[in-house]
Amino acid sequence: SASRGSYRALIESGLGMSFSPNSGLQQVGSKMMYSVGAIGVAGENVARVKSAIMSALQDARTKGFDKVKVDGILHQLDLSIKHKTADFGMGMMRRILPYWFRGVSPFDTLAWDSTLEGFKQKYAEPRYLENLLQECFLNDQTFTFTMNPSEEYSRELEADEKRRLASKISDLEQELPGKDVSEFLGEGRQA
Question: What pTM value is reported for the model?
Answer without folding.
Answer: 0.66
